[in-house]
Amino acid sequence: KKNDEIGQLSETFALMSASLKRYYDHFHNLAYTDAMTGLNNKAAFETTKEVIESEVVMNRAEFTVIVMDVNNLKTINDSIGHEKGDLMLKHVALCMREAFVGFPLYRIGGDEFCSIINGTDPQKLIATLQEITAKRSAEDFSTFQCSYQIAAGAAIYTKDDDKNFDDVFNRADKAMYENKKFLKSRATAENQSAAQER
């Protein structure tokens, strides 16, 4: 009965349990969420990596790593300040959320990000991300006084070639740097062409 001593104790324990769950969820979010972007943080990435490593050992892993890096963050930080650079990272995170719907996103460094996907063409996701970013960058030009881009590279786990998660991550990272050089080279050529037209 609700009005007897046991009923009151039961109600109190139920309230306490709900309160503890709220506290747990709150502190879990603090521990695994990047405060600036709202994406998963490095600690969440390391936890996911451990899970994948165990799946590799059990010979049942299936995953693709996409590594991303923001071009021109240093230019923005140096020319108009870190506050604008932080704002730009928030805009970049929004681009990633829009492109990577349903996939986890991690901020693993200052301007370094990662997603771990499965069952989707990574190059299609990267193309979508870069299209979204180009559009937002054009809209943001007056705010940041320069354009920004997201360089990205992907690698798919293959059990015959990859011993662990890091093998896949390193290949994705290498592909990202190749894409970064390509994007910078293309931007330079476009700027030179625009200058000649003027």
Spans of at least 5 consecutive residues whose pLDDT stays below 50 are none
Class computed from helices, strands and strand pairing: alpha+beta
How are strands sequenced across the largest beta sheet? 2-3-1-4
> How would you state the average pLDDT, rounded?
88
Based on Cα principal axes, name the global outline: flat
The number of helices is 7
What amount of the residues lies in strands? 5-15%
The SSE string, one letter per element, is HHEHHEEHHEH
Rounded to the nearest angstrom, the distance between the terminal CA atoms is: 85 Å
Radius of gyration: 22 Å
Count of β-strands:
4
Percent helix range: 55-70%
| Main pleated sheet | 4 strands, antiparallel
Description:
The chain has 198 residues and is of the alpha+beta class. The protein is 63% helix and 13% strand. It is built from seven helices and four strands. It has a four-stranded antiparallel sheet, with helices on both faces. The radius of gyration is 22 Å and the shape is flat. The model has no long low-confidence stretch (mean pLDDT 88).
Short description, anyone?
This protein has 198 residues and is of the alpha+beta class.
